[in-house]
Amino acid sequence: MHAQDLFRAKLPLKLKDDSAKTKPISSGDKAADQVRTAELAEEISAMQDIFYAENDRKMLIILQGMDTSGKDGTVRGVFGRLDPLGVRCVSFRAPSITEREHDYFWRVHREVPAQREMVIFNRSHYEDVLYPAVHGLIDDRECKRRYRQIQDFERMLTETGTVLLKFFLHISYEEQKERLAARLADPQKHWKVDLNDLKERQHWDQYQRLYEKAIEATDTDHAPWYVIPADSKSHRNLAIASIMVESMKDLKLNYPPPNPDYFAIDVK
Questions:
Q1: CATH number, residue 156
Q2: In-domain check, residue 98
Q3: Longest dimension (CA), the chain
Q4: Which of 21, 98, 110, 162 could form a disulfide with 157 if both were Cys (CB 3.0 to 4.6 A apart)?
Q5: From first to last of its 268 residues, what are the pLDDT tens digits of the chain?
Q6: What pTM, to 2 d.p., does this model score?
């Protein structure tokens, strides 16, 4: 079975801790999985070269997940070999005053990929449903309105040439506890500590239910959601790299036709 089929969100979605621990495409050997991921990352890099040369291609990759689910690690482990001339990573944090004065898509839309560009969103417009809903800033009716707006936004992107892939990094409650505790215990990782992460952890169940609703409401064939078991960092990267390779092969990328006149040019 292709990784795309294996990890495509199964609706109705139920996010359970046990499913975050699974490793369905692991070889059983962590080192071997890491080698395979590195090989896939090289394939992605090679296909990026053709992607960049085709001129009219655009790709948006969305990484969502609870704090410590591994969004940064995925960027390094899967996309770290890409040519920086053709890739860009955007991290969305709490909106600034200027951003809050605009509609919530304003800061997102200006960061979507241009032609020949691959863009990775570390968090995204989905934060503008999840966080305010958890904290009572918007009600269920407004959530549904925003789901509809997100559908419209993503359809517009894909209809204007953007390939859109969305990954939910699914970790368990216990795994998050261990990762947060590890950061607190290691002075070299204190720079990563955000005490707000501990506060948000108190709303774990609400976030899980809201992620279920958001994924169900916005999973489409043109903008699919992939639910990635992420308790294992090596398996997480292997799964995402596998889906990326399959998705890029589906594009049937080819270099533009050569210019026959160039073969006759004598460089002095």
A1: 3.40.50.300
A2: yes
A3: 70
A4: 162
A5: 899 999 999 999 999 999 999 999 999 999 999 999 999 999 999 999 999 998 888 999 999 999 999 999 999 999 999 999 999 999 999 999 999 999 999 999 999 999 999 999 999 999 999 999 999 999 999 999 999 999 999 999 999 999 999 999 999 999 999 999 999 999 999 998 988 889 999 999 999 999 999 999 999 999 999 999 999 999 999 999 999 999 999 999 999 999 999 999 999 9
A6: 0.97
CA 9: distance to chain centroid? 14
81 part of a folded domain: yes
- What is the number of domains present in the chain? 1
- Strand boundaries in the chain, DSSP class E: 58-65, 87-91, 117-122, 162-170, 225-229
Identity of the amino acid at 179: R
